[in-house]
C-alpha cells in the first residue's frame, strides 16, 4: 500500500465520529423541537419542515446542498489546469442556474402551495404516463448525483488516508460508511435536520475558505503574498503553458477550455429543477464564493507550488479524481490542512447526500406509494414509507458507487456527463409550472427523444473526432459540449413541436390548489391538533400571499436577468475579448475582491440564521447549559405564546345565581371564506349565497322563538355585500362581532397583513355606520378565523381598536388572560367540541380521530345535539363558561336545523331552571343607519370636462354611465377573468355608502362611460342600465328562440325584460303582477304577451295553476317552497344573476337598430330641481308610474 498523508484511523474517526455526532445532535434537537416548538415528526414535518424554514437557513441550505464534493474538488482542479478562468466559469455557470431556479421556485410555491414534490404537479397535469416519465428522469439525475457524491468523497478519503484498503483489497469502506450518519440524522429529523446540518456544514466550509485565503496570500512560508503567487504563476506558464489561454497564461480570462467547461457545467447542473424554496438569490450569490474563492486560493496555489519539494506531484489520475485542493492544503498547512480538507469533504458529501435522499424519499412516498400503491395512506404509513425509502436508496447508491470506484470513471466525468442524459427534461420540467400550453405528448416524447438525440451526438462526435469511443475520449470537452448542448436544446424543441403538433393544452392552474392536499398526520403519535391545523392551512394561500409571490416572481425574473447579464457578459467577456493578462496590480485587486466576497458570503450565511433562529437557540442553551425546563409553547405561526391552563370562569358568580354562562354564537356569512381560499366558482354570482338568503331567516326565527341572545361573527367584507342582511341581524337583537375582513386564516398573517386587516375591517364598519357609534358598530368582539392569534401582538391591536373581548380557540394555546386596567380584554374561548364543523366537515376527520372520541367520518345532527347537550350539562355541573358555535352554511338541512333547535331548547330549559346566564355585550337593538345617501344609478349625460389621462372621450360627447366600477386589479379573480360584476371590491353608485348619480355634475372613470349614437336620446341612454339587467338575465337563463318564459312582476325591470325577451323570440311569454294597470301597459308594449293578475288572497298553488294554464304547454310545477339545499336532490336548475357585465354595447346596438323601444316606459318626467315631486310620484300608486326620470336641461 502506498504511503498516505493521514492514517486510516483519521478517516474512520471523521466519518464515524462526526457522523455519530450529527446523528445524536439531531436526535436530541428533534426531541426539543417536538416538545417545545410543536415540531412532531409527521410525514409533513419530515418532508416539508412545516414549510416554515426562514430565509437565512434556506440560503445556507442552497449553499450547502450545491457544495458537493465536485464543487470543492472540480473547481480547484479546473483552476489548477486553466487558471483564474477555471474558478470563475465554474462558479458563474452554476450560479446562473440558481438564479433561474428562484423564478420557478416562487411560481411553484404560488401555484401549488400544498405540494410535497414538484412531480405531484406532473401527475395532475399529464396523468400517469407523464408523471412516470418525470419520475424516471428525476431518478436518473438523483442516481448520478448521489453516486457522484459518494465516489468523489471516497476518492479523497482513499488518497489521503488509504481507508478503503483493508487486508490488501480495495472494498470502498468510505462509500459504505459515509451514508450511515446521514441516514440516521435524516431519519431522525427529516428535511429540517438536513437544513440544520447544512448550516453547520456551511460554517465549516467558509472557515476553510477564509483560512485558505489568509494562509496563501498572507501567512504561508511557501507563498504568503499575492506578489509571490503572481510571480510563480507567470513562471508556471512558461514551464507548462495552457493551450487555448491567452499567451498560455494562468492569469487570464481568455481561456477557450475554461469558457467551454463553464458552459458545459451550466448545462449539466440544470438537470435538477426541483428547487421549491425561497432564498435562492442570497444562496446563489453566497455559493459563488465557494468555487470562486476556494479554487482561486487552492487551485492557483497548487499550480504555483508545482515542482516545489513541499508539494505532491499531481498526476493525470489525481486530476481525474480532483485532488489538487487536498494536496495544496497539505503542502500549505501540513497535516492539519489535510484533516481540514477531509472534514470539509465529509461535510459536503453528507450535506448533498442528505438533501438528495430526502428528495428521493419524498418522490417515492408521495409520487409512487401515495399516488399508485396506497392513495389513502395515513400519515404514519407515509412516514414509514419515507423512512424505508431513505434506507433502501442509500444502500443501492452505495452498491453502485462501489462498482464505479473500481473503474476509471471519476467525479469530474460524472459531473460533466450527467447533463447529456437529463438536461433534455429541463424545458418540460420548467414549463410544467410556467407554461400552461405544454401538453402530455410533449412531456413524454421530448425527454426521451432528447436523451437519444444527445447520446447519439455525444458518442458520434467522439468517434468522428478521435476515432474511438472510450471513457477517455468521451470525456473530452468538445463531445461533452455537443452532448450537453444538444440535450437541453432538443428537449425544448421537441416539447414545443409536440405541443403544437398534437394540440396545445390550456391548463387550469387552480387545479393545483384544489387537487394537491396536505397529508393527514393525525395518527402520528404526539402530533397535536394545533400542528395538524397549521399543516392543513398551508394547502391554500391567502390573497396577500398570492400577491406577494406574484410580485416576488417578477422581482426574481428581473434580478435573475440582471445578475445573469453581469456574471455571463459584463464581468468576464471584456477581459476574454481583449485577451487581457492580469498585471500585478490587477491580480492584487482580484485577490482583494476574493477576500471581500468570501467575507460577505460567510457573514451572511452564518449570521442571518442565528438572528432568525435566536429564540430556538435560546431554548437550546436554556435547556442544555442551565438545566431549565421551559414551559411548553403553542406555535402561533412563528410566535411562541407561553402555554397556560385553558382559560375558564369556574368559581365566578353569575347574575341571578346562575351556575354557568353561555354564549350562543354564529360564524361566517356568505361567500367570504370561499373567496379568500379561491374556492368560489367564477361562474357563480356574488351576493345571493343560500346561507344568507335561505338559512339566515330560519336562524333568526329560531332565536326569536326561544328568546335567546346571540352574537354573529361576520367578515367585514359582508358589510358592503349584504348590508340589508346585517341590518336584519342587528334588528333581531343579535350582536354584530368581527371575524376578519374576508375570513383570512389569522395564523398565516404576518405583522403587516394583520395590521392591514384591522384597518380595512374597522374602516369598513365606520363607512357602514357613517362613523357614528350606534347599535351595529363599532365592533366589540373578535373571533380569529382558525382560532389562533399572534399572542400579545394581536391583543395589542385589539386594545388599540377598542375591542372588549376576543374569542380564540381554548385548545390551541392562544388564550392569554389580561387582567387589570381599563383596557383589559375579556377572553371568551370556544372549544372544537361545540363547533358544528367538527362534526359535519370531512376536513376535521383528523381532529376527530386525534381526540379519539368520534370516528373519522363526518357525523350526523343527532351526534352533534347529543355532544352539545353533554358539554352544556358538564359546564353547568362544574360551573364556568361555554361558547356554542353554528355556521349557517352548514346548517343547511331540516335535520341539522332541528339539531340546533334541540340545543336551543335545552339551553332555554336550563335557563328557566335558573342554571344558565347568557353572555351578552352591546350591539343589540334598532339597525337604522343614520346617514344621508344620494340615489341614482341609471344616468346619461354630456362630457363637460376631461382629466389629463382621458384619451378616448372628448368634451361634448354624449355618454351613458355604467355605475358599477370594479377594482380592475390583476390579483382580483373576478376582474381578471372578465366577470367583473362579481368583484368583491366593486364600487356601485347609490349602494351604501357610495352616493348615487342624481346630481348635476358627476365625476366618472372613462372606462365605464359608453358613447351614445345620435339616434339614442338621453332618456334611452339612462334606461340602458335596466336593459343591461334584462340582457344579463336572458344570457344567464340560456333563453332560446321559441322557449316559454314567465316574468314575475311588471315593474320597470319586468317591462324591460319583456321587451328584451320579445326581441329574443321567446314564446309564449307570460307576465304576472298585482297591478292591472301595469299588466295593461305590458299588453300595449307586447300585444302577444299573456298577462295574469295575481290575487293577493288566493293560495300560491292557485296562482301557479293560472301560470301553468297561460303557458299552454306541458309544465311541471312543484308548489312546495323549495329551499336551496334541496335543489340538487330534486335536480332543479336555479340560476341567479348579479347585475351584469359587458352588456352596454349590446344594449346600445339593440336600441339604435330599433329592435327594442324603451321610450314608452318613461311615464313621468321632472326637472332636476323637482326631485321631491319625482320621488312622490314614483311612490304614489295612484300616479301609475313605471319609470320616472329627472331631466337637467
Automatic annotation (TrEMBL):
Bilayer topology annotation: Multi-pass membrane protein
GO function terms (MF aspect): hydrolase activity, acting on carbon-nitrogen (but not peptide) bonds; oxidoreductase activity, acting on the CH-OH group of donors, NAD or NADP as acceptor; putrescine transmembrane transporter activity; spermidine transmembrane transporter activity; urea transmembrane transporter activity; zinc ion binding
Compartmental location: Membrane
Broad class of the protein's primary localization: membrane
Chain ranges of the NodB homology domain: 677-919
Any one GO CC term of the record: plasma membrane
Pathway the protein takes part in: Carbohydrate degradation
Transmembrane segments annotated in the record for this chain: 12-34, 55-75, 87-108, 129-151, 171-191, 203-220, 280-302, 323-347, 385-404, 410-430, 442-461, 481-503, 556-577, 589-611
GO biological process: carbohydrate metabolic process
Pfam families listed in its UniProt record: ADH_N, Polysacc_deac_1, SSF
Keywords (A to Z) from UniProt: Membrane, Oxidoreductase, Transmembrane, Transmembrane helix, Transport
Family: Belongs to the sodium:solute symporter (SSF) (TC 2.A.21) family.
Protein name as it appears in the record: NodB homology domain-containing protein
Species name: Friedmanniomyces endolithicus
Source taxonomy: Eukaryota, Fungi, Dikarya, Ascomycota, Pezizomycotina
